[in-house]
Amino acid sequence: MASAALNTQAIALSEANLPRLPESVDLPSYDRATLHPGIVHIGLGNFHRAHQAWYIHRLMQEGLAKDWAIIGASVRQQDQTMRDRLIAQDCLTTLIELSPKGRSAEIIGSMIDYLPIEKDHSALIAKMSDPDIRIVSLTITEGGYFISANKGGLDTDHPDIRHDIANPGSPRTVFGAIVAALDKRRQSGVGPITVLSCDNLRGNGDITRSAVTGLAKRIDPDLGNWISEQCSFPNSMVDCIVPATGPSELALAHGFGIDDAAPVTHENYRQWVIEDDFCVGRPELEHVGVIITPDVEAYEAMKIRILNAGHQVLANVGELLGLETIADCMAHPVVSRFFHKIEQEEIAPYVSAVPGMTPPKYVQLVAQRFSNPAIQDTTRRVAFDGSSRHSEFLLPIIRDALNAGGSIEGLALVEALWARMCAGTRDDGTDIFENDPDWARLTEVAQQSAQRPITWLEQSHIYGNLVEHPSFAPAFCSWLDRIWSEGSVAALQAYLR
Fold first, then answer.
1. In this predicted model, what pLDDT tens digit does every residue of 176-221 receive, in sequence order?
2. Do residue 234 and residue 250 come from a single domain?
3. Last residue of a domain, which of 261, 293, 325?
4. Is the N or C terminus of the chain more exposed, i.e. has fewer CB atoms within 10 Å?
5. To the nearest 5 percent, what fractions of the chain are helix, strand and coil?
């Protein structure tokens, strides 16, 4: 990616205008008119465009993967604005890399269409039924998999899942749409597809398989068995810090001479590790640095436990202290020491090494990435949907530490900081606005917990039986009392002592 001199003359991003863009911006070297679709991607947010779409684009730049172009899709009506923006600019995206040493920009052309967003998802089902489509990939966030909190697996009691079981021809959910498309493929003889999750879930392929086959078997047991036997659901691990797009990101694109309604910024690091389990072929991703391996678990455990859990270590206290970005958190002397102590003493001991990387070295790598001041990754974005992220990223570490007899003081403090944040005010009294799909209920419980801390742990759908643990529950209650009486920084300083 070439460095760019900033340019104030912004040109509207489109296929026709590519030759007019400044020479400093890297452009697609391939003829997009010759591309053929091979992938439908559902959940077309910033992360996908900075990660999976970039890898496919890099292959195309090398003359490969011309029949693996991406068709964008969504099952959420609120994504209509993004669709309108991308369609207006021929589904092109400006990627701006933010390195501590400078900035650079490139135009990504691997996506060639964005399907209409419809209540019954008919266009999506039809496209996934197309013989050209061999991979359906997903970035639908950790909370989008309808996982039963009490039983694991698909939450068949959820109203949307119950609707899809009763109305398979007009589904509401992404999994209902996938099952409907697979039913059409089976009946027409088109054959199976690979469903590739790119979300931050351990065993994301296994979870996706469970959701798709579990729903299909409720609708038609024969269909469920066909999917289980014929389709592939590879596990994967994805890694790249990609901030949300706001006015400053739009201004950055303008500075490069590009009028892009939906640019994406990202750090100068990315990684993708995928299990080699594709039933109808795949792009040659290893040519552009993707790790293809039969064992994704160790890579994803390291990333999810050190990076994703580390994000939650920082974000909740960052919100309480009014620290706007993750880099601001790392620049705060007390918060930074808090992060390093928990990572090295209470998280890294429960992470295994992977080829070329030990847990302590990965902690240092993550700390450097989090400290990059060019990445304006907001604490609010990272703290969003804590009810899913704490359950997925932090609570498994707490349980491992308790089983091993290790320290959980810092991790209990992290949970107490989350409870305090959900009360809806910062340490200085300013408001924290709604930041979780279940915010109203969380806020009610958090405010009750100010007087009776154990109330927070009694949320069994999140904490299970941790409320009964003789070490964790008292530690949590003590920290929450201290945060309310002395403030967040005083609690962190007590832990550091």
1. 999 999 999 999 999 999 999 999 888 999 999 999 999 999 999 9
2. yes
3. 293
4. C
5. 50, 15, 35
